[in-house]
Amino acid sequence: MRLELYGIARLRAGRPALDVDAASVGEALEALRRACPGLDPGHLLLSLNGERFVSDPALRLAPGDTLVVLNAEAGG
Amino acid sequence: MRGYHGRYLRIDLSARRAEEVALADATLQQWIGGVGLGTWICREEGGARCDALSPRAPLVFALSPLVGTPLTTSAKFAVVARSPLTGFLSDAISSSHFAIAAKRAGYDAIAVAGRAEGWTRVVVDDGAVRFEDAEGAWGRAAAECGIDGHRTAAIGPAGEALCLFATISNDGRHAGRGGLGAVMGSKRLKAISVRGTKQVAVADPRGVVEEARRLSALSFGPATAKYRELGTVANLLAFNRLNMLPTRNFAEGSFGGAEALDGMKRKARESCAACTIGCEHIFEMPSGEGVRLEYETLFALGPGLGIDDRGFVLSAAALCDRLGIDTISAGGTIACAMEAGFGGLRFGDTAGVLRALESMAEGGPLSRGSKRLAESIGRPEIAMHVKGLEIPGYDARRLPAMALGFAVGTRGADHNRSSAYELDFSTEAFDVGRIIEIENRAAAMDSLILCKFLRGVFADFGREGARLVELVAGFSPDLAAAGSAICRLRRRFNAECGWTPADDTLPGRLLGGAMTRERLTALVAQYHAVRHGAG
After folding, report:
1. Domain annotation covers residue A76
2. pLDDT by residue (tens digit) across B455-465?
3. Which of B387, B360, B382, B355 is nearest to B491 (CA)?
4. Beta-carbon separation of B226 and A47 below 8 A
5. Structural domain includes residue B433
6. Angstrom distances, CA of residue B98 to CA of B149, B169, B187, B192
7. Most buried pick, B268, B460, B486, B532, via CB within 10 A?
8. Do the beta carbons of residue B480 and residue B383 sit within 8 Å?
9. Is-cis flag, bond preceding B449, omega within 30?
10. CATH of the domain at A14
11. Which residues of B touch A (CB under 8 A)?
């Protein structure tokens, strides 16, 4: 599955996306932590395929899914 | 009471006279400062009972107990008046040195009414007031209107021309929304310059310093990283990905040119006075000069107009700064004109945008906003506004909480006074009660005043915010109750201006799917039942 990165996540990772092996939201977040050690997961927001926000680590992901990783702070 | 001077300054430009008005402790404790105190003074001074541009209309600059302390982001003030754009209450917040200097001049607020015979500068110098001829400043940008040793808030050419979305500008920032610059222009008040030495005592000086250190440390953490390291322009690509980036007058929710707009060259990062976040990102224009750019300006002058030329957007933003016009309303009005083909304007027409912006500062037909423009050409449905205020860059079709927040906003379509998008950008369920809680918290923050970019650092804003007031002013407000009372005061003001429930709606273009007009009407009714029932 793919992690699409925006904002601080993209800045910390130094790239716009990561392809990772993850079967759940929790596994995807763990893969993101390994790739971006300085990233604080408490200030991230996850959108499943850009359609709905998700947070449950146990939520299962399909191989073709994309998790869009955003800043939790949406103000502007 | 500590933290306050206990008085405001009432200035009558017609009579060239000023007097001090006492503020009771109970009044200050109830309305705190900023938008709360400013709205109360504006209403007491008759702001809801006269036309926005009449000489009698009050224009209130309201400070807060936290101004002048070392608490991060506290150097802010609110400007409050009846809006000439909406006909309802408008409160706009600006920041930095003007706030500190105005408080040191010796007042908790300055209320200006009347109309000068010619262009005038009011100088408030340590409690003394004088009126100076400002005819020589006519036509100048606000940034060119300062005087040595003072801090100045001024209008640019758009305010002089009574553009209905003209700003009041100080220290390179703007009290932007609702056309308060036109109110100032209608009084022939070009500038107000302040300075002083009058410090107020605080209740617990050591506690204030300790809390300032704690908040400053938190302000360097992850809750503000987006604002500090990237600025609000980071919203562009994220919103585009989520189909929430209003494009071509809200015809679409994503913009093919978003990637092209991203990646502007950063030149510097700056802060307001007494701020440790430093969210002001300065980008390099094609000329090599720098200009501050926020997401809302980027949206309004870029995707909203079908423009993907980042150099142009930066230059247009600088032009808006110089002219003194609100970029959201300017972009929304031009987008409406582009959709109609008004004056030959077409989406993506950069040269046309520059002409349109200049015409706004000359009092041309676009200076009256999208609602009046669309009505004048018989196409009211193409104006993307609520109560006459153009809609910011959050696509309400994908954001149901923000849709309701926009609809019920007392100053019109307003992301800052509502902040209901927080619910949309979460896994929480839609809940009218939560939308009201968020709105109440925003009203409390805007009255303390603290920057909303700081809100993520508080574990419990109600408790921690009250503690700040207690350390400074010696009383501990119930901020949820205070925020609710301030929101209800705004509604009372608007009711006196002729508000009806029919004003709480959205353009038809933003309705459909799950948010039908019937559902929105029901949600608005539920909002008012909860707001007025639970208070």
Report:
1. no
2. 999 999 999 99
3. B387
4. no
5. no
6. 12, 10, 20, 10
7. B486
8. no
9. yes
10. 3.10.20.30
11. 222-227, 229-230, 232-235, 237-238, 241-243, 294-296, 393, 415, 419, 421-422, 425-427, 452-453, 456
